[in-house]
Write a structure and sequence with these properties.
Layout lengths: L13 H18 L16 H34 L6
Helix pairs in contact: 1-2
């Protein structure tokens, strides 16, 4: 009898670690209030407390886009390794 052995792909891969870091970083930055609870330095008259949070809106968007692209690239690679039929 011939047995077809399917290699199990690891659940935790380096790409998934990067994806997790991209998605967790904004939460850590916003929940660590002590790091930005001050008024100086100001940016065009806006206290640090406010512009730091607004900066993270843009950074969070960029990090989410990176995570999304990495996820899709990994899923396409997994599908091609599995024969293209499964995700």
């Amino acid at each position: 009898m011939s047995e077809v052995t399917q290699e199990k792909q690891p659940v935790v891969t380096p790409v998934r670690v990067v994806i997790a870091l991209c998605l967790i970083a904004p939460f850590v930055a916003m929940l660590w209030v002590g790091s930005y609870s001050r008024t100086e330095p100001t940016l065009i008259g806006i206290p640090f407390f406010y512009w730091y949070q607004m900066l993270w809106v843009v950074l969070s968007t960029a990090l989410t886009m990176v995570a999304y692209q990495l996820w899709h690239r990994e899923q396409r690679a997994r599908a091609s390794r599995n024969g293209g039929g499964e995700r």
